[in-house]
Amino acid sequence: MSDTTLDHGDIGALRQSFGGSVLLEEDAGYEDARGVFNSMIEKRPAIIAQCGAVSDVKAALAFARDAGLEVAVRSGGHSVAGAGLTDGGLVIDMRPMSAVSIDPEARTATVGGGTNWGQLDGAAGEHGLMTPGGRVSTTGVAGLTLGGGSCWLERKYGFACDNLLSVRLVTADGEEVTASEDENPELFWALHGGGGNFGVATELTFRLYALPEATLALLAFDPEAGPEVARTYRDMVDDGAPDELGGGLAYITGPPEPFVPEDLQGKLLFGVLGIYAGGEAEARAALAPIAEHGPKGEMFATMPYPAVNGALDDPPG
């Protein structure tokens, strides 16, 4: 929490040189701008700087440094702990910087620091390509990748950071640098899971893979079957399940979906989620050991990869 009193003359000067928007608590749009995915996080920044260009990032950092303000960097806003907000400080909101450029021949994607996975998935998917990242499409690409980047298909394609080719970032002193295997390699290594401590990522480039479609599978069991099914899932993966298979296990409240039996709707059930990099027949074969337990309901659907990676989206809050 910053105790710094803001000089509105200085804020006016910042606004004049700023390409994006500078929001204070009294401004329209402030409340929406400070909202994050986890509604339990209640922080009130003194300033939200919605950056439209690298020059805005530099200006916001310089203002925060001169004013003695704590800085938080926000991309998708999915940090469970609310790392994209600060009480009384300055938020560098990267969401306006969300351009995506796909090179289908080189199989690379270059995205702005405010891009979310749905935007990247959609653009790459137009070419039948993907890069692995996230489990919810509204998650920010930069924040997830800089934290490592676990994802549904990590067994096949690795974490998001494993497919990171380069990062452009602005350091705390306002210097713009590039990190890759050939340029600033130690910084590049640190950005593979080291978090958002090394600068503000303004552009990231990723390796892409051909994956025009994937299969989503959901299997519902009585809750009592959970421990036995979980052990089978563990042994199945340990004993050489195809790398194309990802997924997870969860106790959930049965949704009112056609594949969920009425006696489990609104009740506790044990669910197995499978995400397969391929078609339904291959997915069913990979999940055969789970199916032997006799699920009370099941659903298999093959669809474009972007749809799979956003199939379990929840609204913010």
How do the helices and strands line up, and which of them pair or pack?
Elements: H1 8-16, E1 21-23, H2 30-34, E2 47-50, H3 54-67, E3 71-74, E4 90-93, E5 100-103, E6 108-112, H4 117-125, E7 129-130, H5 141-146, H6 154-157, E8 164-170, E9 176-180, H7 185-190, E10 200-207, E11 209-210, E12 213-221, H8 226-238, E13 245-253, E14 268-276, H9 280-286, H10 288-291, E15 297-304, H11 305-309
Parallel strand pairs: 2-4, 3-4
Antiparallel strand pairs: 1-2, 5-6, 6-10, 7-11, 8-9, 8-10, 12-14, 12-15, 13-14
Helix-strand topology string: HEHEHEEEEHEHHEEHEEEHEEHHEH
Number of helices: 11
Low-confidence stretches: none
CATH architecture name of the largest domain: 2-Layer Sandwich
- Compute the number of structural domains: 3
The gyration radius over C-alpha positions equals 22 Å
Give the rounded overall mean pLDDT.
Answer: 95
Using the alpha-carbon principal axes, give the shape: globular
What's the arrangement of strands in the largest beta sheet?
A: 5-6-10-8-9
Which strand-content bin applies to the residues? Answer: 25-35%
Q: What is the number of beta strands?
A: 15
Broad structural category: alpha+beta
Helix content: 25-40%
The profile of the biggest β sheet is:
5 strands, antiparallel
The CATH topology label of the largest domain is Uridine Diphospho-n-acetylenolpyruvylglucosamine Reductase, domain 3
What's the end-to-end separation, in Å? 24 Å
Quaternary structure: single chain
Q: Give the class-level CATH name of the largest domain.
A: Alpha Beta
